[in-house]
Amino acid sequence: MKQRCLWATHASPLIQTYHDTTWGVPVFDDHILFKYLVMESAHAGLSWEIVLKREHDYDLAYEGFNPLTVAKFDEDKVRFLLTESKVIRHEGKIRNSIIQAQVLNEIIKEVGSFSNYLWSFVDHKPLVTHRDPQGWDATSSLSDTISLDLKKRGMKYVGSKIIQAYLQGVGIINDHDTACDLCLKGEQYAEENT
User: Fold this and answer.
1) Mind listing the pLDDT tens digit for each residue in 150-167?
2) Could you list the residue range(s) of the whole structural domain that residue 141 is in?
3) Is position 3 within any domain?
4) b/e string for 149-167 if b means 16 or more Cβ within 10 A?
5) In the chain, where do the E strands start and end?
6) Active-site hit among 7, 23, 36, 48
7) What local confidence, expressed as pLDDT, does residue 1 receive?
């Protein structure tokens, strides 16, 4: 029988599939990293399942999550996102996603890629936490550091809790429970890439 993290054991099939196939898998593609940053920012105040159910809608509305494209979204596109798309229709979060794209473009100019920027905080290998199923930290010193830097660069909806969830989701922090089958995969990946 498959051993999952405690939080996913009795979750909906959608959340279990997300846990089994996506959560904690290391991501290096800038477009995918940007996508999950936008989705995690939209997640603020909502359940992850609500946002995850709209993943396909986000893919369509954000035109492949190319930060160069999203950075140029104009008022017509904002109006479309607020009225006709099926993304979370929160004006502040939508406008922030455009700012996030602009900041990502500056980071890419600075260090070559958003992936390089994020992964440099963990020496380019997943931080495996060996977390006890009963222990759960909503933030970490890593999420505090990255959150602060992104805020200084002009982003909103990137508080430490959001960034912690984001880092877990894109595999920078492998926070699978020690009893979870996927905890070992994170350790193997970290060993192979040192």
Assistant:
1) 999 999 999 999 999 999
2) 23-192
3) no
4) ebeebebebbbbbbbbbbb
5) 127-128, 173-174
6) 48
7) 66
Is residue 106 among the annotated active site residues? no
User: Which residue among 23, 40, 157, 166 is the active-site one?
Assistant: 40
CB 40 within 8 A of CB 75: no
Contact between residue 8 and residue 16 where contact means Cβ atoms under 8 Å apart: yes
Distance CA 109, CA 90 (A): 29
Tell me which of 18, 23, 62, 117 is the catalytic residue.
18
Question: How far is the C-alpha of 132 from the C-alpha of 16, rounded, in Å?
Answer: 19
The string of pLDDT tens digits covering residues 101-139 is 999 999 999 999 999 999 999 999 999 887 776 767 789
48 counts as catalytic: yes
Note the pTM of the prediction, 2 decimals: 0.93
The enclosing domain of 59 has a CATH number of 1.10.340.30
- Please give the distance of CA 143 from its chain centroid, rounded to a whole number: 12
Note whether residue 10 is domain-resident: no
Q: How many domains does the chain have?
A: 1
Is 189 a residue of the active site?
no
